[in-house]
Amino acid sequence: MRKFIFKTLLFTVPFLTLYIITSLFYSTKETPDLLRIGYIPNVSSDYRKVFDFNKPKKFELLSKSSNRKFKILTIGDSFSEQGGIGYKNILANDFSVLHVNRFISDNQIQTLIDLTNGDFFEKYKIDYIVLQNVERYIIDNSQNIDFNDKMTTHELDSLVSDFQPKEEVFKYDFFSAATLKFPISSAKFFLKKNYLSNKEVYNVQLNTTSLFSNNSDKLLFFYQDLDKTKKNNLVENSNNLNQVLNTISTKLKQKNIKLIVLPSPDKYDMYYDYIVDKKNFTKPVFFENFRKLKKDYIYIDSKEILSEQLNIQKDIYFFDDTHWSPISAKIIAYEIKKVIK
């Protein structure tokens, strides 16, 4: 019996130790996303306490609003889904804002075309549209566009009524792969430089500790930021994107609507110049290529705007997340206000 207990302890004690490490430092929340998907230890547990995440939402959702007249309509991806801390909520302090739910706009560029070709803007009075798209997917979303596709308000209502929201639950189970993988990944975080963690999140060394308020010299970013760089760097792809946006803007002008285009920089692009060893990291040049093109719409060059703040303000992007912080959201909202006012 004693031998059995001893042999059992040889297995259970190490596993229990791994479980304790994982339960203490593994983040199971939706945000910060990079810690969760990259199996990165949450060693700066107080980091987010400086941000106020409890601001009331002042914008309206397309799926719930009964109003038909708004100054601004916003349509985008997760950078437009930051709730009370997002740029659209700040805009709602000064303007009426209607936001197109993300489940409606899987590809926001195509969805805007569909709405423009349908009867949406006959039934909704909109003055400005903010079309936001994160850098890594903006070229993908501009390809294989169907300019003849349309969505009527009847189809839109059916889509909304049929939608069944599913609350994504991120949890950690005792008997799971995370118990084994996370402690190993955590050790790499402290001992290794410039590596891909859990095949999803890069952890690279920076040449400064001044970019984030936790004084880290590490940059965490989503692997697709790098993977999409080759495609996004091609000038011809930027030209095609610009032509698509110019065409959309022309269609909207016929309805007396002004288009504001807001590409959101990848975190990798935002902080690229601060990476120590760039040998295996291609320089992103999408914004450099794109800003040279002739545009028939209002363009918010968010990379240029936010880059000017990097040496002045910490946490332009969250240290532990793919998205820009409330600090950047406020800066971007101010730039949009300027072009409207």
Q: Give the total of beta strands.
A: 9
Order the strands across the largest sheet as they lie in space. Answer: 1-3-2-4-8-9
Tell me about the biggest sheet? 6 strands, parallel
Q: What structural class do you assign from the helix and strand content?
A: alpha/beta
Name the shape in a single word. globular
The residue-averaged pLDDT reads: 88
Notes on the protein architecture:
With 341 residues, the protein is α/β, with parallel strands linked by helices. The protein has one domain. It has 15 helices and 9 strands. The strands form 2 sheets. The protein has a 6-stranded parallel β-sheet, with helices on both faces. Helix 1 (2-25) packs across helix 8 and helix 4 runs parallel beside helix 11 (235-253). The model has no long low-confidence stretch (mean pLDDT 88).
Please give a handful of descriptors for the protein shown.
341 residues, 15 helices, globular, 6-stranded parallel β-sheet, alpha/beta, 41% helix, 3-stranded antiparallel β-sheet
Give a topology summary.
Elements: H1 2-25, H2 33-38, E1 60-61, E2 69-75, H3 87-91, E3 97-99, H4 108-117, H5 120-123, E4 125-134, H6 135-142, H7 153-162, H8 177-191, E5 195-197, E6 201-205, E7 218-222, H9 223-227, H10 229-232, H11 235-253, E8 258-264, H12 267-270, H13 286-290, E9 298-299, H14 302-307, H15 326-340
Parallel strand pairs: 1-3, 2-3, 2-4, 4-8, 8-9
Antiparallel strand pairs: 5-6, 6-7
Helix pairs in contact: 1-8, 4-11
Pathway: Glycan biosynthesis; alginate biosynthesis
Main location: periplasm
Domain AlgX/AlgJ SGNH hydrolase-like: 221-340
